[in-house]
Amino acid sequence: MANTSEKINQVGAEEKGNPNISPQDGDIVDGNSAPHDEVFGTMTEDGPNYRGLGWLGTVALMMKTQIGLGVLSLPKVFDLVGMVPGVLLLCIVAATATWTSCMVGVFKFQHREVYSMDDAGRLMFGKIGYFFFGVAFCLYWIFVAGSAMLGISIGLNAISSHATCTATFVAVAAILGFLLASIRTFGRISWLAWVGLTCILISIFIVTIAVGIQDRPASAPQEGPWSSDFEIIRTPTFTDGVRAVSLLTFACSATPAYFSLVAEMRDPQLFQRAVVVSQAGSTIVYLVIAVVVYYFCGSYVSSPALGSAGPLIKKIAYGLSLPGLFVTLAIDIHLTGKYIFLQLLRGTKHLNANTWVHWGTWLACTFGSTIVAYLIASGIPVFDGLVSLICALLSTVLAYQPTGCMWFYDNWNLPKAQRGSWWKLMVFWSAFIVVVGCFMTVAGTYGSIVGIIDSLNKSGGTKPWSCADNSSS
C-alpha cells in the first residue's frame, strides 16, 4: 500500500505541475492554454466544464446516490435476520464497500484514461471485459433508475391518496427525471444533491421519531394491548438471508458510479476523503434508522419504511422525500446517459462544443435511458424485489469482482522485495472479495427472483402496468 500511496502522490504532483490541467479550481480557458483531460479531451469555454465538481459536492452526490432507495428497505432487512445480525452485517458490508470504493480512486489515479468500469475492464480483460462491464454498467443504472421511478410513484400515491392510476405517476416521474438528468455536468447537479439529501433525511427522521412516540405502527393490530415483536436474533431461510445481504450491499455501495464522479472532480486527490466521509455518514444514518424503526415496529415494519408511522406521517414523509427521490432518479439517468454520450462523442470536437450534434446526442442519450427505465419500473412493480434483483444481478458484479481484480492488476507483478506480509494479506483479501462477489451474484439473484414471484402471486399483489395503489404496504 505504501507503493500505491507514492504513486497517488506522484500523479497528483505531476497534475499540479502540468500547465495544461487545472485540477484545483477546474477553470476552463480558451486558446492554446485550454486544459486537456485524459477522458474529456481539450476543454474550452465553448463547451461544458466537465471538471467542475468539488469534493463536498462529490460527498453529496455519493450520499444521495446511496440514501434514497436502500435506506427505505433496511428495517425490513433487520426483520429478516434480527437486530444483532442486522447491525453486524450492515457494518461489515459498509466497511467492505468503503474499501471497494477507495480502490476505484486508486485505480483511476494510476490509469487516468479510465472513465467507467468498461475502461477498467478493457485494461484487465481486453475487449471482452470492455463489452461486459459496459453493458453491466448501463443495465445497472437503468434498473436503479427504474426502481427510483417506482419509489416516486409510491410517494405520489401516498400523498394524493391514490388520486390517479399508478402508471400515470410512473410516467410523471420519468418526465421530470429526464428534465433534471439532462443537466450536463455533475458540478451543476451537485447542488441538487444537497437539496435532495436534506429533504430525504428530514423525511426519514420524521418517520423514525414518529414510530418511537406512537402507540403502535400503522400495520399492527389497532385494538388491544400491543408490544413490538422485534427479535435480537432470527434464523432466516437461505433465500431470506441472501436477500437481506443483497439489500444491504445495494444500500451501502454506489461504487459503480464512482469512476464517473472522480473523472469530473476539480481535485481528484480528494476522492478518498469524499469516500470516507460519505460512507461514514451513510452508515450512521442507516444504523439509526434501521435500529430505531425495527425496534418499535418489529415484524410490522412497512417497506418502504416511510409507511410505518400511519397515514398522516406517511403523507408528510413522502411529501418531503419526493425532491430527494427525484434527484436520485436524475443522477441515475445521468450516469447512463453520460456513459453512452461519451462512447458516441469521445475524441470528437462535438464532445466539448455546444453544437447541434452535441445537444442532440446528449438529449437522445438521456431520453433513451429514461424510456428503458420507465419500461422496467412498469414491468417489475415490486419495490423490495426489484431493489434486491438489481443488487444481486449487477451491483456485486460491478462493485466487488472488478475492484478485487484491480488490485491484482496493479500489484500482482510487484518485485519480490515488495511482496511482504501486507502484500500477502491483500492478495487474500482481494481474492476473498472476488469470491464473495461471485457467490452473492448467483445466490442473491436466485433469492430475489423467488421473492418477486412470491410477491406477484399473492392475492392483491401489484401487477405490471397496473393502476392499483402501490403505497398501501
TrEMBL record:
Keywords: Membrane, Transmembrane, Transmembrane helix. It holds the Pfam family Aa_trans. The keyword Transmembrane helix applies. It is a multi-pass membrane protein. Residues 1-29 are annotated as: Disordered. It comes from Bionectria ochroleuca (Gliocladium roseum). Residues 53-449 form the Amino acid transporter transmembrane domain. Belongs to the amino acid/polyamine transporter 2 family. This is Amino acid transporter transmembrane domain-containing protein.
